[in-house]
Amino acid sequence: MPKKETFQDLSLPALKGEQELWRWLYTELRAAILGGRLKPGARLPSTRSLAKQYSLSRGTVIAAFDQLLSEGYIRTQVSSGTYVAPIMPGQWLQANRRRSTLKVPASKATLSKRARAMIHGIDLLAPSHSVGKAFRSYEPAIDLFPVELWSRVASRVLRHAPRSLYGHGAAGGYQPLRRAIAEYIGGARGVRCVPEQIIVTSGAQQALDLAARFLLDPGDHVWMEDPGYSGTTQTLRAAGAKIIPVPVDQDGFDVKAARKLSPKARMAYVTPANQFPLGVTMSADRRLELLNWAASIGAWIVEDDYDGEYRYHGRPVAALQSLDHSGSVIYIGTFTKMLFNALRLGFMVVPERLANAFEAARSFVDRHPPTLDQAILAEFITEGHFGLHVRKMRQTYLERLSVLKEAAQKHLDGLLTIEDAAAGMRTIGWLPAGASDKLASKQASMLGLEVSALSAFALKKTQKPGLILGFAGCTPHELRRGVSVLSTDLRGSR
After folding, report:
1. For residue 435, which of 419, 460, 455 has the smallest C-alpha distance?
2. Mean of per-residue pLDDT scores for the chain
3. Contact 316, 345 (CB under 8 A)
4. Rounded CA separation 249/227 (Å)
5. Exposed, middle or buried: residue 9 (CB in 10 Å: 0-12, 13-18, 19+)?
6. 476: left (phi over 0), alpha (psi -120 to 50) or beta
7. Are 449 and 355 part of one and the same domain?
8. What domain range is 295 assigned to?
9. Given this model, what pLDDT does residue 77 score?
10. Residue 449 has pLDDT above 50, yes or no
């Protein structure tokens, strides 16, 4: 005589909407279990019985059971049937938490020393909820970026891209982009290289990290501009380097002072075309002196050329790398400052003897840069759009700098002296002697302005009080508004 099934009547509600049958059954059974209508240990109907009762295919019921089984709501017993699990997943987690709280001491595991050094003093940039806020110094003129042109190029590239571009990319970067970069920086910056020397990175910050991690050993001395870019300072500390602050004057990085402080340093970090944050240009004599020092002792020079093309008087100064005949310079560039911040693409130019090593290093970090973005950028460069955009922005930024200076002369006379920037996307407003730039920066921030205190970028040398004011990404209207607000702030703090 056939075995008769005994189980609780489920009485599941009717199917609503266009939900898939298996998902409907899974959802209703799960709700019955969680709601207590199906008690822990209760036997479920067989798949054949459920299929017959609700006019379903047996495959549909099996699919629902498989999902419940994988999530821990039911258990199967061979030759016996399917039962509601004695303990629900949520109950198990809750019970496990109670056991952990009562019996297991809190973990004493900590971050590594390297991680603690890496995150010390880092101020995270907030996501952009506005464009062109005064006086944001790290943003180009996003309001003038040719979005429609970029979209057309991107659409064409994506339509015709071979399927291979959706696969694994080259660690060193998309070859057409490497060729385009090599050709462009050769003409615009005087950089001497072949495409194989270019390593495409996720912005300049990753390039700095690669250079620090793969060229330095813990304890190595590194010459660092003082004042200088805090992102580099943090990267060097994270790599375990000993930072040697080197003063900067009107001729840029002081090589003679650096040699006295640490003659056998392993690396020098410089921004020769447009020193960050003072905006001075390294003189020819000091460039040659720095190159001779590096070649004589086998040291590295990291040249950060993040906005060297935006020079407002005469032609842009050629890169330091163009004078390097010993293979001592690591040249770093970025497209985030030239196009838009969300485009996380930059590059480094390494000596030929290091090309394979850095390609492997790039693979070690995150396999490869995003290939489709690289393909779009490669087309944007080779079709001439990039060069045209840079030339337009050079003129626009000069006009915006003039607006800032005129507004400051009208509203900030005696409160802030604006430096006539020769290059770049930002300038310095000098405060009167004895003023606190950190206090002025804090008060300005409370009024909705984005200004940085110059002293925040000093490592050792005491700087005159000043505020770093970005102008490139701000419309003329926003610059005038920012000057008006800043005037109120500075007059009130007197």
Report:
1. 455
2. 88
3. no
4. 10
5. exposed
6. alpha
7. no
8. 144-387
9. 84
10. yes
Of 277, 255, 251, nearest to 426 by C-alpha is: 277
Instruction: Give me the pLDDT at residue 95, please.
Output: 47
Identify whether 127 is part of a domain: no
The partner residues of 264 in beta bridges, in order of sequence, read none
DSSP summary character for residue 439: H
What CA–CA distance (Å, rounded) separates 226 from 312? Answer: 25
Q: Does 359 share its domain with 411? A: no
Q: Render the burial of 50-61: b for 16+ CB within 10 Å, e for the rest.
A: bbeebebeeebb
**pLDDT digits 0-9 by tens, 269-315:** 999 999 999 999 999 999 999 999 999 999 999 999 988 888 888 77
Give every CB contact of residue 178 below 8 A, 6+ residues apart in sequence.
172, 195, 196, 198, 200, 347
Percent of the chain beyond pLDDT 90?
59
pLDDT digits (tens, 9 = 90+) for 406-431: 999 999 988 999 998 989 999 999 99
Residues 6+ apart with CB under 8 A from 113: none
| Per-residue 3-state assignment (H helix, E strand, C coil) for 185-243 | HHHHCCCCCCHHHEEEECCHHHHHHHHHHHHCCCCCEEEEEECCCHHHHHHHHHCCCEE
* Cis previous bond, 227, omega within 30: yes
Domain count, the chain: 3
Q: What are 29-68's pLDDT values in tens digits?
A: 888 888 788 888 888 888 888 888 888 899 999 998 999 8
Rounded Cα distance between 474 and 482, Å, is 9
Is the residue at 428 inside a domain?
yes
407 and 338 in a common domain: no
Are 378 and 413 members of one domain? no
pLDDT of res. 115: 75
Residue 236 one-letter amino acid: L
> Can the peptide bond before residue 263 be classed as cis, meaning omega within 30 degrees of 0?
no
Q: Quick one: pLDDT band at residue 130, thresholds 50, 70, 90? A: confident
Residue 128 lies in a domain: no
Residue for token pair 């003093």 = 121
pLDDT at 199 over 50: yes
What six digits make up the tokens of 440?
Answer: 């002025």
Averaged pLDDT for residues 233-262:
95
